[in-house]
Design a protein that fits this description.
This protein is mainly α. The protein has one domain. The chain has 4 helices and no strands. Helix 2 packs parallel to helix 4 and helix 3 runs antiparallel to helix 4.
Length: 130
């Protein structure tokens, strides 16, 4: 069985999260006409943050042990700090444009962390001379 690349899973999850954050204000318009209200639910968002945090934790630790570079860990930590601090504050939510942008920024940072982690891991495992 081929090894699961957690960075690719994490990049995909972060991209989905970013799309979710940017699109949600527009989704509020169609929620009354569709049964997709769960997408704006707090439980759904916390579940997705937890899912992303678990994947990122495993991927970043595994990657760091291979390449010893701090950048992916720092980007992921900042991204999750933004997610959690914004989600727990009362001032921002997906109902505001600024809140959506803040959540999208956090998702982009985590996606970049996975990208760099993947890139650095590939270089560390490469046996060719650069």
């Amino acid at each position: 069985m081929k090894k699961i690349n957690l960075d690719k899973v994490g990049m995909t999850a972060s991209a989905i999260c970013g799309i979710h954050c940017i699109a949600l204000p527009f989704v509020f318009i169609i929620i009354p006409y569709a049964s997709i209200a769960f997408l704006e639910g707090s439980l759904f968002e916390w579940g997705f943050i937890l899912f992303s945090l678990i994947i990122a934790s495993f991927a970043m630790i595994q990657g760091f042990l291979a390449h010893k570079k701090w950048l992916p860990l720092i980007l992921a930590s900042i991204g999750f700090f933004i997610f959690i601090s914004t989600k727990t504050s009362d001032g921002h939510s997906h109902e505001t444009f600024s809140g959506s942008l803040i959540f999208a920024l956090a998702g982009a940072l985590i996606c970049c962390a996975h990208f760099f982690n993947h890139k650095f891991s590939k270089l560390a495992n490469c046996n060719c001379s650069h």
